[in-house]
């Protein structure tokens, strides 16, 4: 099990900073905090660490430049303000990092870059090439071109996806809170901070429903979602308060700062990371209790005999959700057959596939190598 004593060995580190970290309540950039952030990241880079920065703030900076006080509601307004603010934000980062002799690269991503397998691999290769050049990537969602159907919705999720495609050793999310509490500390003065978390419970999710600042899209709920993704992928994650002096250095040194989310023992394979978190599901397969046991307890492939029902339309190679008869998603996987084909062979033995479909390319509907089980 990963402990804080293991964090100093982290070589590739993703740091996510939110709008509340980078700006004052009036929307203007907090230059003092940005300078301290850049200095810490540059020092980590000097120590031989690979650093990836996931930064919010473009929409807030754009709104401040245009004299807009309220957060924009429509996608076109967000796109316009992001276009105005993104350049200003990157310019400030470039100026600050240059003072320490560091070169940065802007990387803008949308959900589409993770949904399609080829684009996912291209994004991964580009990011690794930037790191190999000893350059610090600064990543943000491409708010200027994003539309409602493909947006991440928050940079907490984006940072977890980036940690996955980069095969990171640690994700640090900086915010205006000390970490995960057992209740909202703004409402309960007796709230207790979780030092570490090994499992995200329904109680934690229910008590984390508050949103962040006016120009942010995240909150503790999105941070818990990111933590769940990292824990499943085998990447430790820490939530900590950006107001703590040298907070990043203290975390990397293994100091007892914030909340540490402890991951699974083994890192998830890149292919399964994409299936689990990068892709979007195109349909649902309802399975019986026998198939549930085979997948969860025995690590087997999904055979047609265990499928009760097929929902929605999808083709071969699409990613689908695997659902229990009680309606709980327990896995995701890449199917070997289309929805129409699976409807014909559902509940039948693999030996019957050729007779029913007049061809048989696979015995399994989803092979265990293309299956992620929660």
Q: What does the model show?
A:
- This protein is α/β, with parallel strands linked by helices and 374 residues long.
- It contains 14 helices and 13 strands.
- The chain has helices spanning 19-22, 31-46, 58-65, 75-98, 112-115, 117-132, 155-165, 202-206, 220-233, 247-252, 270-278, 289-296, 339-345, 353-357; strands at 12-17, 50-55, 104-109, 136-141, 170-175, 196-197, 237-241, 259-261, 284-287, 307-311, 319-323, 329-334, 371-373.
- Helix 3 crosses helix 4 (75-98) and helix 7 (155-165) runs parallel beside helix 9 (220-233).
- The longest helix is centred in the N-terminal third of the chain and has 24 residues, at 75-98.
- Mean pLDDT is 88; it is low at 213-217.
What kind of oligomer do you see? single chain
Structural class label: alpha/beta
Distance between the termini: 18 Å
Strand order of the largest sheet: 3-4-2-1-5-7-8-6
